[in-house]
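We emphasize that the prediction below concerns an isolated chain of 106 residues; any contacts that depend on oligomerization or on bound cofactors are therefore not represented. The input was used exactly as deposited, without trimming of termini.
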Amino acid sequence: MRVLWTERGPLDVRSVLERLNAQRPTALAYTTVMTVMARLAEKGILRRHMNGRGYVYEAAVADAAAIAVRNLIRDFGDAAVAQFIDEARADPALRRRLERLLRDES
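Result of the prediction step, given as a token string:
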């Protein structure tokens, strides 16, 4: 994910593999990276588009926190949202920050 977040544009599997292997003592296999990227696309963490005979991928989420929130909502749904609201009600600073963020999005 760091490779795609850093690039901020679509990359094919080979490009991601090259960047990953440049930082590793032992090389990853092409098929390993391709499988992981395909699974992340299935989960909505990456977007993929046809480019010729293959796919290019780009991040569909902004950072690791977005992945965590997406997984939390997927796994716990309304209960996670309700718990977050309870936490915000109990913490005035968090509540003010949340209200500020909500106003900025309008």
